[in-house]
Structures are given as structure tokens and as C-alpha cells.
Amino acid sequence: MRKLVDTGIRYVLFLSALASVFIVFLILLFTLREALPAFREYGVAPMLTGTVWRPQEDQLGILSMIAGSLLVTLGSVILGVPLAMGGAIFLAEVAPPAVREIVRPAVELLAGIPSVVYGLFGMVVLVPAVRSTFSVPGNSGFNLLSASMVLAVMVLPTITNIAEDAIRAVPRDFKEGSLALGATRWQTIVRVTLPTARSGIIAAIILGVGRALGETMAMIMVIGNSIRMPGPLSQNPLTLFLSQARTLTGNVAVEIKYATGLHEDALFATGVVLFILIMLVNGSARLLIQRGGAE
Amino acid sequence: MSEGTARPTTMTREDVTFRRLVQLAVSQREETSRAKVNLARRHLIQRAAFGLLWLSGMAAVAILLAVVGYVVVQGAKVVNLEFLTTPPAGGLATSDVGGMSTTIVSTVYLVFWTIVFAGPLGILAAIYLVEYAEEMEGGSGLVPIIVSVVRFAVEILAGVPSIIFGLFGYALFVSAVALGWSFSLRSAAATGACLVLPVIIRASEEAIKAVPRSYREASLALGATKWQTAWKIVLPAAAPGIITGIVLSVGRVVSETAVFFVTFGGTVRAPDTVFDLSSPGRSMALHVYYLAMETRAFDKAMGTGAVLILTIILINLLINIVSRRLTAKLKGR
Q: Is residue B70 within 8 Å of A125, Cβ to Cβ?
């Protein structure tokens, strides 16, 4: 009897384990199935290279959204990576234990703050500040710069945590060898520790990029959601970041609730493009981590 | 004459030796002083670099304090008992009426069902992955493949952006194409369950792995079956870690917006009871979004945001307490 129960339970457990596989399968099935008509009717290439998004007139180009996603991610990397790396090195090598006990929970909590709260803070504090700081015609404050600043804070914990682990994983002997040869602690960090932890650090940054590409609500709230291709507002090419934009995630979230027919399919197609982009990014990070482990 | 000629020679010799000695001393002094200068420079660079590192470490704390402080201080202006206990009303930013009570209720219902759906599934999957699959890895050829496929699927799920979960939930649960549950508590909770499943599986797996082998061996030696061992011995020992995973998932559901934006509906009215699964609702995080983006009632958005942040801080504290107790227990062993 107990044997029988045991076998039965074995199957129940096996099925529970398979649930994750099943869910991944369902996600792929449903997003692809809904996206397929858009890809088929409009074509993959016109969709990826078209800059006009007018779903009511069956114009389904999402290049401006791809550009929006990539630009805001680039902005968040430029603003966030130095800070996040500084934080990681600080936590792993420099901070006294007492300080670490304060900074590490702070970073954790930064990761826990809901994205709507970041979005709200961005709307109320950053957007007006960006609007009044840069007096360029057409700068509403709702733009790539504000969104990049919000996103930089949101990817900071991801990068800091993983990079800190990578730095900590560097064997003690390496550092001690360097210090014994007369190098200072800083020289040891720059010339020995960081190069050794390189693949882990790059993986951390890539995972941060993946996180940035997937962010939705905070982006909707501060980026302006314009469907136009982002471009410079004046002669200065840097005013590109004062331009409104829309992310792939935002495109889906803003329109899905009222979209029907081909429009709805095109939104699913947007999701598929986003999904592939993020899988490529996360996959390369995974590869780097594995290779780093083999070294 | 010979002395005369000899003297200058010896003198030059002494002179040469002396000069050499002087040169050596000078060059040594130069070298040490150069080394000293070099060392001083290196220390200066180090001090500057460490200063920057301190700054970036402190920046994380400063940003946290700025965001949390601003939202809580602004939110405190509207949050009071009445705000917490009256339902939202009066859309305009100027009106003083209306609170957030129904969104708290909706959030609690949503968390409840998400955990009911994902909790058992995740824990059972973790038991299988650790207790059943690993011992068989040497055995039949199929099991290791399945296990690695499951691990891979969990990893993919953990990396999928939430809006993709939302799209999937919208297609499978909400829209009439498949289940046709429309915007409802069950659509939202089912989608949310997919979102937190990898969190629960990973945390439970870690916790179960950490249970010492001797526990299992002792139980099996006493004649207990594998399941009895897993259920009565391993699971209780792994409980704190599993609970950490569950609480983490609660935090994830409370703070998630994108998924529920496209599955929960967003109506101000909460479901009547926790079993009113077919009604739509609006979680606290969604409420912040609607207040900021649609009604433009920023003061109330700040108030709701403040309550949301305090909830998250509370959840983080809970996790810290549980995991601290866990490590204390492991150390005591």
C-alpha cells in the first residue's frame, strides 16, 4: 500500500516539475500563434524596418519602438553601469563590514521597490527637472533622458549584486600575490581582481541590459510614448535623448486592452520581437557565466 | 718622482672609489626617493579611487532614501485611517474624497490565489528535482534529460519580462480565443502564478538541498518510504527557506503592475469575497498607475505609493528575519 502511494506521488511530483516546461511551451505557443498573422500579412522585414505605426491603417512598422527600447537601454547603461560597478567593487573590496551591512540591504530594497513607484517618482520629480534644465524647444521632460535615469536606478541592483558575486569569487591567492609584490590595493583591484572577474562582470551588465529591455510600467510613465522615430531636437545630436520615444514593452501595454484583429496580432508580434531580443541577451550572459565557471 | 707619480695615481684611485661610493649613495637615495614619490603617488591614486568607490556605494543609499523618503513624506499628507478604509472615489486631483480600501482588498485576494496556485506546484516540483530526480541521474537515460529540460524552462521563465507574461495571460485566460475568463481575479492570479513559479522553485530547491543527508538516511533506515521522508523530515527542515521563497513571491505580486494591467481589469470595485474569482479588480500598484496616468491625482498616487513601499519594506524585513533565523539555525548545528 505504501509502495503504491509512493509511486502515485512520484507521478504527481513529476507532473509538477513538468509544469514549468508546459508554461514555457504555452507562452511560446500563444504569443507566436497570435503574432503569426501579423508577420504573415505584413511581413517580418517591413515590420522590423518600418517607422510608421498606424495600426488603424494597417501600417505596422515597429522600428521606432525598437530604437526607443535600445536607446533608453543604452542611456541606462551609460548612467547606471559606472555607479553599479562602483557599488559592486565597494561592497566586495572596500567597504568595512559595518558599512556593508547598510549598503547591501539598501541595494536589495532598491530592487524591491515597485516599478510604478519609480515611474511616479520620475513623473513628479525627474520630468519637471529635466524639462526646466534643458531649455530646448520640444523638450517636454517626458523623454529618453528621464526614462534612462529611472531605468539606471532600476538596473543598478541587478548589476551590483551579480558583479559583486563575481568579484568575490576571485581567489584570495591572486590578490595576496599581487599585494605581496608591492602593489597597492587599488592596483590589485584594477590589474588583478577585475580582469579575473571579467566574464562575471560582463554577464552582470548584460543581465542588467535584459532587465532594462523588459521594463514596462516605469517606461510608459516617463518616456512620453510617442510613436514617432526618436531624433535630435536641435543641431546638437545629443538632444536625441530629449526626444520622446516609446519602448517595445510600452507599445504592448498601452494598446493591448483595446486592440482587435490585425492590430492585436501586431502587438503580439511586438512581444515576440521583444522576447527574442531578451532571450538573445540573457542567453549570451548565461554563456559567459558558464565559460567563466570553466576557466 | 716615483712617489710623486704614485701619489696622484693612488689619489685618483681613492678618488674613483670615493666618487663611485658617492654616486652609489646618491643614486640609491634618488632611487628610494623616487620609490617614495612613486609610492606616495600610488597611494594618492588609491585614495582618490577609493573615495569614488565610497561615493558610489553611498549613492545607492542616497537614491534609496531620496525615492522612499520623497514618496513617503508626500504620501503621508493624504494617508490616514480614512484613506485606508474608504474606497477610491472622485477622480479629479482636486477632490479630497476617496481612499484606497478596495485596492488593498484586491491585492490581498490576488496574493492569496497566486500563492495558492503557484506555491504547492513550485514546492512539489522542487521536491521532485532534488529528492527524486537527482538519485536517478545515473539510472535511466531519460530522467536526466527531463531534469535538465525542466531546469532550462525554469531559467527561461525567470528571464521572461513581465509584459510577456501579461501578453500570454491575456491570450490564454482573458481573451475569448482560449479560456475566455475575461479580466478577472482568476485570470490575474493564474498569470501571476506563472510569474512567481520560478521564484518558488528556485528558493525551495536551495532550501531542500541544504537539508543534511543524514536526516534522510536516518529516516529511510527506520523504514520510512521516500515520500514519507520527503514530506515529514525534509520538508519541515527546509521550511524556513521555502517560506522565504513564498514571501519573496508575495512581494513580487504586490509590486507587479504590467502583468495585472492586462489581466486584472482595473475596476475600482474589489471582488466581493476572496472566492469571487470571476470579478475584476485593481491592486495597489495598479491603483498608483491609474491615479498617475489617468486621473492625474498625484497626491493620492503618492499616498498609495507610500503604502505600497511600506508594504514592500515590511516584506523585506520579514525575509531578513526568516533567513537570519535560518542561518543561525544552520550555524547552531
A: yes
Nearest to B167 among A31, A184, A214 (CB): A31
Give the number of domains in chain A. 1
- Give the model confidence (pLDDT) of B279-327 as tens digits: 888 999 999 999 898 888 888 899 999 999 999 999 988 888 887 777 7
Between CA A239 and CA A243 the distance in angstroms is: 7
| Average pLDDT score, chain B | 85
Q: What is the pLDDT of residue A88?
A: 95
User: CA A180, CA A173: separation in Å to the nearest integer?
Assistant: 10
- Can you give the pLDDT at residue B332? 57
Mind giving me the DSSP string for A30-43?
HHHHHHHHHHHHH-
CA distance A225 to A142: 9
The half-sphere exposure of A239 on its side-chain side, counting CA atoms within 13 A, is 14
Of the partner residues B56, B67, B171, the one whose CB lies closest to the CB of residue A30: B171
* Distance to chain A for B106, nearest Cα, Å: 17
pLDDT at B52 over 90: yes
Question: What confidence tens digit (pLDDT) does each residue in A235-270 have?
Answer: 888 888 888 999 999 999 989 888 888 888 999 999
How many CA atoms are closer than 13 Å to the CA of B313, on its beta-carbon side?
A: 12
pLDDT confidence of residue A165:
92
Distances (CA, A) of B259 to A107, A271, B104: 24, 13, 17
**Where are the domains positioned within chain B?**
101-332
Q: B178 pLDDT exceeds 80?
A: no
Return the residue of A nearest to B121 by Cα: A16
Q: Which domain holds residue A95?
A: 2-294
Distances (CA, A) of A255 to A56, B24, B167, B261: 12, 82, 11, 11
CATH number of B101-332, picked from 3.40.50.720, 3.40.980.10, 3.30.200.20, 1.10.3720.10:
1.10.3720.10
Residues B62-115 have pLDDT tens digits of 999 999 999 999 998 888 888 888 888 765 545 566 788 889 999 999 999 999
Cell of B40: 606616495
Residue A229 DSSP one-character state: P
Is the CB of B255 less than 8 angstroms away from the CB of A214?
no
Residue A160's CATH number: 1.10.3720.10
Give the whole-angstrom CA distance, residue A14 versus residue B124: 8
Task: Answer whether A153 sits within 8 Å of B201, measured CB to CB.
Answer: no
pLDDT per position as a tens digit, B9-48: 556 767 777 777 787 777 777 777 777 778 888 888 889 9
CB atoms closer than 10 angstroms to residue A280: 12
Q: DSSP state, A59?
A: E
- Compute the residue count for chain A: 295
> Pairing mode, if any, of strands A53-54 and A59-60?
antiparallel
Around Cβ B98, how many Cβ atoms within 10 Å? Answer: 21
Cell numbers describing residue A239: 538632444
